[in-house]
């Protein structure tokens, strides 16, 4: 029986790419997203490519525990187990601290951190129930290791994700479940980064069409992070080859962050 992956935030952009990449690698995939229609569309593409019944799309509000419980139940009903949880939901709002709205800070914590906690809680229960030596992998950011100017809410939540990852790894080690955070460099072509370009241009005092190059110049390998870079590392840490690794925050930054 093929393994089952749950990708939270899997209905668009990076999450959709990871969902389809995991399906290609042989996983049956639960695509979960706040936008339920997007989740179902990604699942439908997977079923067209990989065969009917290989994927289901489910609407979820990852920051709401009842919604996450329903997602865990839907996964159990569809596939009867879970081997890999990928938490890829995220949001960011750029603003200097003196103008940062509390509602924006709270939303960042809810989506980037609380949702990760809730999903790890309920999906680890399924893994433990079935004796599955599973994998939990958070999609994090280099902003979880170094502060990010005008991104205090995002960076605070991502730093919290590193501590949560280490704590989960300790909690779950006796069950053979490993936990990691992937610390991504700038996904320059992602809708999230593109949406922030006007704010970054204002922050840097440069034209918008120069923003990407500024961020490329910060990277020793002189390019942004690609979706495929993330999938490559994700597949390794989800595999048996990484069974002796847990609690790690793995940089995918082109050398921009090295600790």
TrEMBL record:
The reply on keyword ATP-binding is no
Q: Listed GO molecular functions? A: sorbitol-6-phosphate 2-dehydrogenase activity
Would I find Chloroplast among this entry's keywords?
Answer: no
What Enzyme Commission number(s) appear in the record?
1.1.1.140
Q: Which InterPro entries does this entry report, sorted A to Z?
A: NAD(P)-bd_dom_sf, Sc_DH/Rdtase_CS, SDR_fam
* Key words, A-Z: Oxidoreductase
Protein name from the UniProt record? Sorbitol-6-phosphate dehydrogenase
What is the organism field in this record?
Bisgaard Taxon 45
